[in-house]
Amino acid sequence: VAAAGEPVQITKDNDTYIRDLQWSPDSRHILYTDRKNRIVEIDPFAKTVRTVLQCPEQEIRDVEYSPDCKWLTYSRPAPNKMSVVYVYNLSSGKEYPVTEKWYDSSSPTFSSDGKYLIFTSDRDFRPIYSWIEWNFAYTDRSGVYMTMLASGTPSPLLPTDCESLNIHESEEDTAPAEADKKPAKGGKTAKEQKDAKVSGKSSVDVKIDVDGLLDRTIKLPIGGSRSYFSDGKKLWYRDGRGTQVFDFESGKSEQCSDGMVIYRPGDKKALSTAKGKWTAVNFPSAKVGGGEAIDLDNMYTTVDYAQEWPQIFDEVWRAFRDGYYLENMHGRNWKAVKEKYAALLPYVKTRLDLNYVIGGMIG
């Protein structure tokens, strides 16, 4: 949508379904996946479209930008059909595996500080006796794992050296002002980080050392989950009890909410839902309580069936065009079939009428 509020068309003549639209963290690009197994990046300002990569096996559904927008992470099948997590350098066009091809791994996400990659992997082998036959069964293989992206980044689960910590704290007392400190090699001063935030640019610089990347993976001592986010110090994840928060320093988990907490890195608020109520809360570190209740009673929508039903009809037609198991559809002229049955749409008065027309088309 342009500044004046009018929609602006960026792409046209798409040849398949578009999935999972998402903005880059710097709001300069749009990323999506589609039913032709592609990852596509759009520059909405230049109105250009480029295919980042295409998977020969299946759709990629869990792609995500790094905080600095220079990398992507996703999972896709290896030749042995096991799902492997990758990171992809948008500048060089090269991808690098983060996990081995011997275990199914998926749902990768960067921590908001750009130091870690968190993902789910089915590599826990804890056999129990099967209830069906006298044999071993593996019922709970999934765990949450984390990879340190830079070779110099230590595991956050390592015990802290208290003596070194005290020395570090005493040095801070006589250290120069934060804004005047000289950054480490390749780093940024506090003032530069502040200026970056003002300009909309990310102050995070994600460094990935691909050598030894597979060997820098640790398992987090939490239950299985496929929904999580991290700021580099804590990990929020959902399980059967609600939302939990795991502290890297203490190594302990704490109940954060009885329901679901939805958070987007960089925001100061999170959306909490529990017992059928939605609440806007400050970014949670422990228990979620209070907050501003969101009133949904006055939310209405107007449905124009005369416009909605032709769209539903078109979507069904496209679903068969893009998803039918034979590209030639057994010799049927699918465009002609659409035109034949679309002539009945002006006479559709109920959803049952629409179902009848759609059933005739796909039959």
Core attributes:
363 residues; alpha+beta; Methylamine Dehydrogenase, Chain H; Transcription Regulator spoIIAA; four-stranded antiparallel beta sheet; 5 helices; 22 strands; 17% helix
Mean pLDDT equals 81
Give the uncertain stretches in residue-range form: 167-180, 196-200
The H/E string reads: EEEEEEEEEEEEEHHEEEEEEEEEHHH
Number of beta-strand segments: 22
Q: Widest sheet: strand order?
A: 1-2-3-4
Radius of gyration over C-alpha positions, nearest whole angstrom: 25 Å
The coarse overall form would be: globular
Helical content class: 10-25%
Terminal Cα span: 39 Å
Going by CATH, the homologous superfamily of one domain would be: YVTN repeat-like/Quinoprotein amine dehydrogenase
State the helix count. 5
Our estimate of the beta-strand percent is 25-35%
Would you identify the CATH architecture of one domain? 7 Propeller
CATH first level of one domain: Mainly Beta
Largest sheet: 4 strands, antiparallel
- CATH topology name of one domain: Methylamine Dehydrogenase, Chain H
Computed structural class: alpha+beta
Structural account:
Helix 3 (305-323) runs parallel beside helix 5 and helix 4 runs antiparallel to helix 5 (351-362). It contains 5 helices and 22 strands. Mean pLDDT is 81; it is low at 167-180 and 196-200. A hairpin with a 4-residue loop joins strand 17 and strand 18. By secondary structure, it is of the alpha+beta class. The protein has helices at 162-173, 190-199, 305-323, 334-342, 351-362, and strands at residues 18-23, 30-34, 38-43, 48-54, 64-65, 71-77, 83-89, 94-97, 105-110, 116-122, 128-129, 136-137, 142-148, 217-219, 228-230, 234-239, 242-247, 252-257, 260-262, 269-274, 277-282, 292-293. Among the domains are: 18-160 and 203-220, Methylamine Dehydrogenase, Chain H (7 Propeller); 305-362, Transcription Regulator spoIIAA, CATH 3.30.750.44. The strands form 6 sheets. Strands 1-2-3-4 form a 4-stranded antiparallel beta sheet, with no helix packed on it.
